[in-house]
Amino acid sequence: MKKLVLLITLISTSTLTTISQKLTALDVLKKATEIAGGDTWQNPKTLLLKGNADFTPYGLADDKNAIHFDKYTMHRIFPPYNDEAHKANGKVRFDAAYKDSTFFLLNFDGKKQTLNLSERAKPYAKQFNLSNNFGFSIIRFADKPAFQTTLLGDDFVDGFPCYMIKIIDPKMNMTVFGIDKKDFYIRQVAFSTEVGFHHRIYSDFKKAKNINFLQPTRLRIYFEGLKWVDIKWKEFYVNQEIDDKVFVVE
Q1: Does a structural domain hold residue 11?
Q2: Most CB atoms within 10 A, among 12, 16, 109, 204?
């Protein structure tokens, strides 16, 4: 009887391994899209995020410029198509403030990028450059014919076993995503920038109200393996109208 149980276990394990090995990169991306919200998630119109964040430059929590942002917001109008992962597109604005002081305002109005940096923020201008922080949205377009997708070796993100997917966009930029093998949550994005290797870890996933859209409510941002920003989104709104005036910076 014990031999029979062992044989069944071995067959079952072998079958699961075979099924896992048969998944392609596009299979994984398709499943991740389905879990995240299907077409609503893949082709969103707008996203508004509100929360707070801790800024620790070069990973130093006791640095004189380490700050807790009471206000951290993102306004986003998504582009209908994206063929270059690490370049600002659509429209996007980030605001960070502490107490009554503005730390930075990062804005792309569809044509021009604006970086309004306080004196405390100016030493980190390269890290705040939007081109060094773009990359996530490219996964929404990776099933298009002009893209190349490759399934890499599995890895762990935050202790979760993940498929690692390499995406090459039409401009030949590479972005790597970590996708949870169990829940198919997108847990990590990584790519190279002019200020070194950049990766982000996503967690605390929540469904939006009244719309099929999965949003990670915690985001940790790293450069060269050091955590620079730890963001906690307290509110998020999908496909609500965002006035174009938001992206007009005087």
Answers
A1: no
A2: 109
